[in-house]
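Translate sequence into structure tokens.
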Amino acid sequence: MKEEFSVDTSSKSSFAPELKKFIDTWKSKPGNLIMVLHKVQQQYGYVPRDIAFEIADILEIPVAKVYGVITFYHFFKLKKPGKYRISICMGTACYLKGGSDIVQGLEELLGIGINEVTADKEFSIEIVRCIGCCGLAPAMTINGKVYGNLKKEQLADILAKYKESQ
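Result follows.
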């Protein structure tokens, strides 16, 4: 089945007024696309497909350029992350001190792989280059909260705290 890539731009914008104002402010400035994408991801947690098309239309650039930037930079996401976004550090210190064991443990416990979301949309796993906590290696964050000096055996208890709060 061929995917359709056209968007009806005649309809009212789906941007929140704050986001629309931000885009209007950046529209004529150099580096506008990166700034706009950061703001969109801040608002949605990822860059929705329809929003990417609207950005291209408003900035008067090809959609391919928008997707070129989104896919070039690891920071931008095309899929909505889980409610609890797990970022596992694989910087040098974390990697050498067992970061891959943490990845494997989370994949086993959650039943998903890297850049995937659990069926209940509660958890997602991503690899990051460094979170700046090398002295706590191996480390990960869940929605920004740092967990360091991790052992695979601790992961179930950490996840249980988030599952209880659902």
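Note: The longest strand covers residues 84-89.
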